[in-house]
TrEMBL record:
<keyword id="KW-0489">Methyltransferase</keyword>
<comment type="similarity">
    <text>Belongs to the UPF0677 family.</text>
</comment>
<dbReference type="GO" id="GO:0032259">
    <property type="term" value="P:methylation"/>
</dbReference>
<dbReference type="InterPro" id="IPR007213">
    <property type="entry name" value="Ppm1/Ppm2/Tcmp"/>
</dbReference>
<protein>
    <submittedName>
        <fullName>S-adenosyl-L-methionine-dependent methyltransferase</fullName>
    </submittedName>
</protein>
<dbReference type="GO" id="GO:0008168">
    <property type="term" value="F:methyltransferase activity"/>
</dbReference>
<keyword id="KW-0808">Transferase</keyword>
<dbReference type="InterPro" id="IPR011610">
    <property type="entry name" value="SAM_mthyl_Trfase_ML2640-like"/>
</dbReference>
<dbReference type="InterPro" id="IPR029063">
    <property type="entry name" value="SAM-dependent_MTases_sf"/>
</dbReference>
<dbReference type="Pfam" id="PF04072">
    <property type="entry name" value="LCM"/>
</dbReference>
Length: 344
């Protein structure tokens, strides 16, 4: 299993399977003209030259979503990703196809995106009376506030580092002024609030509240591709804060967790892991936890055609196993978890 220096393992795991590669529509990379205009080119130059790998991971993930556009609806992703990350990701996909790899880079990312989309919609539907708040921690280039109609009654809060949110605003402003993109650059959410904060600092919750977040209101928390970038203590602190909110409002947490072998193999960007998030979260105060793995019925989306793909092999092995009994390779798992809680 190989890992990228920037971004997540979700974009690699090239020995895993994804059915018929010739069916996949990546014939050529077409870059939108808007990417080559100022100020779009300028902000992407800053991302490439001045940002660290942590912040750049936001563009890396957007590139993956842009290149899986035949299954992921995210029209702004290519603009938010930028040329360098699009080209880099495209080359990986091209190599996978040339090598007839069992998996095309990005399939896990595509499945993860669709899982979060579906669970956000289901969570919002489950709240009696609708209109729950949605908080996206480590929002990066997440464009759900522009693409998900289910957010039309929700105030959405995007939390990330100031420079990441500023760059995103610049790109979306440019999209607003472009005839090709303006219809995609209108928010589908009721309102959108950018909250510049480091979630390892003690004041991020206060900053969120200053931006209009109301603790007593029903809330969906979206933690996609963020927890494993934090230290163990920081990740636990964030999870505890969200768990505590269950005592004052109906709360749904949607998060992905890497297990220990995934962290051990990957770059030093990753720290926090949990082999048993379905045990951890109840111990923090969540009352209802549902864990899925890639390939499960709700985390499949028709992208894993071969019944013998390695995701299914992994799912058939006990979760306590850290290495495959057949070949000794690490059992790298990504858990997609929904947890909830309420005052009653
Ligand atoms: C891999 S990206 C995922 C972005 C987005 N959730 C998605 O799935 O497209 C991780 C994001 O977390 C942000 N991030 C990492 N550590 C953070 C921290 N301590 N405080 C705020 N944001 C952070 C990064 O800036 C980056 O945008």
């Amino acid at each position: 299993m190989s890992f990228q220096t920037c971004g997540e393992k979700l974009t690699t795991m090239s020995e895993q399977q994804n059915g018929n590669l010739q069916d996949q529509p990546w014939a050529e990379l077409k870059l939108p003209e808007l990417l080559f205009t100022d100020p779009v080119r300028g902000v992407h130059a800053d991302v490439e030259n001045e940002w660290d790998l942590l912040r750049q991971s936001a563009c890396q993930i957007a590139a993956g979503r842009a290149l899986w556009k035949h299954v992921v609806h995210d029209p702004l992703a290519e603009l938010l990703a930028g040329e360098a990350f699009l080209r880099g990701f495209y080359e990986k996909i091209k190599k996978d196809r040339l090598n007839n790899a069992q998996e095309v880079s990005g399939v896990i990312l595509a499945i993860r995106t669709m899982w979060f989309d579906a669970k956000i919609e289901a969570a919002l539907d489950s709240f009696y009376g609708g209109g729950a708040q949605v908080v996206i921690l480590g929002a990066g280039m997440d464009a759900r506030a522009y693409r998900l109609n289910c957010l039309k009654e929700s105030d959405v809060f995007e939390v990330d580092f100031a420079e990441v949110l500023q760059m995103k605003t610049t790109i979306i402003q440019a999209a607003t002024e472009s005839t090709n993109y303006c219809q995609h650059a209108m928010t589908t959410a009721k309102s959108l609030h950018s909250v510049a904060a480091d979630i390892t600092d003690h004041d991020w919750l206060q900053k969120l509240q200053k931006s209009g977040f109301i603790p007593k209101k029903n809330t969906v928390w979206v933690l996609e591709g963020i927890l494993y970038y934090l230290s163990h203590s920081n990740a636990m602190e964030v999870l505890k804060i969200i768990a505590d909110s269950c005592t004052i409002a109906h709360t749904v947490l949607l998060a992905d967790f890497m297990n220990k072998p995934s962290i051990t193999l990957s770059s030093s960007l990753f720290h926090f892991y949990s082999d048993w998030p379905d045990h951890l979260l109840p111990s923090l105060g969540f009352s209802d936890v549902k864990l899925s793995q890639i390939g499960d019925p709700d985390a499949h989306f028709g992208l894993l055609h071969d019944p013998l793909n390695l995701f299914n092999k992994l799912r058939s092995l006990p979760r306590s196993l850290q290495t495959h009994p057949d070949d000794g390779t690490p059992c790298c798992r990504l858990y997609l978890v929904k947890a909830s809680g309420s005052p009653n």
